[in-house]
């Protein structure tokens, strides 16, 4: 081998080793596995990144259990370590679904207050049977002080309430909730269970878009006169997130008839122009449970298969690769935080207990290098 060939062979080996080391450093790591939760279904970081809130949804064989769910509050240290702060921060909840923090002040509701979507018609009674009399079932929004856990206000938006979201339509079975930066509120509606109430209602899956002025009217106990639209979807909305840089709402839907399949869409947070303005990101995947947007705009998904993944093309994904290989136990709605010192922290609630074949009801903390 002459000197030139030997030089290039040596250079290739150096580049290969360097690439391998760099790839190893770029891999995600499971930095923590936090126990002590009860079917954790959703996680969200506070706007200042100092806290992680986790929804614990207590369920029986025939529906959610009344007044047995709660919200956990955990502190996030400067290096990204997550430690318990108050595991039962808000107690005695029934079917907590999703939460977000108000980006603006609404009358006497301060900026940063927790808005919690709660309620379902699928409730188990004290004898362990599905509840037939739903006259006492409340479905709506609860506003909570994020510092004390005190309930500020509760608004019943379900069929038993005198308030209507639009025309004669109520909130039936919320699946997700988020705000855009202007204070417009979005609530995912699965449309399940409308026939179970005395005032029967045809369930329509979609996303409620409630303008900020209409949110304030709801907080005052009035049927809103401001702009309220139901963005119709052909499948059940599961999770959503808003990206301020694009002024876009990203959301996940799941088709549950036949083979479960998930899709991801986005829509402008401006004035709703109908279903034609909906853009497809990826479709016909396996069932999806959560969505977040990475700092540089990549879509990150959680799948019922136990993987975190990125869309690749319109009908495929690329998994977030761990070494050794790692799968999550029935991941729920994931949370994402960009740390000031660079790393990205992802909180993954895992719902399956060891008794049901999972790894325990816990929250795994994933750490990624900065993009």
Molecular structure report:
The protein is mainly beta. The chain is about 10% helix and about 40% strand. It has helices at about 5-25, 210-220; strands at about 30-35, 40-45, 50-55, 60, 65, 70-75, 80-95, 95-100, 115-120, 125, 140-145, 150-155, 175-180, 185-190, 205-210, 230, 235-245, 250-255, 260-270, 280-285, 290-295, 300-305, 310, 315-320, 335-340, 345-350, 360-370. Strands 1-27-26-25 form a 4-stranded antiparallel beta sheet, with no helix packed on it.
Defining traits:
Neuraminidase; mainly beta; 27 strands; 4-stranded antiparallel β-sheet; 371 residues
Summarize the structure.
The protein is mostly beta strands and 371 residues long. It is built from two helices and 27 strands. Keywords: Signal.
Outline type: globular
Strand order of the largest sheet: 1-27-26-25
Tell me the number of helical segments per DSSP (H or I, 4 or more residues long): 2
The CATH architecture would be: 6 Propeller
CATH top level label? Mainly Beta
Order of helices and strands: HEEEEEEEEEEEEEEEHEEEEEEEEEEEE
How is the biggest beta sheet arranged? 4 strands, antiparallel
Rounded to an integer, what's the Rg over CA atoms?
Answer: 22 Å
CATH topology: Neuraminidase
Oligomer: single chain
Note poorly predicted spans. Answer: 13-25
In what range is the share of β-strand residues?
Answer: 35-45%
Organism: Pelagicoccus mobilis
Keywords: Signal
Protein name: SMP-30/Gluconolactonase/LRE-like region domain-containing protein
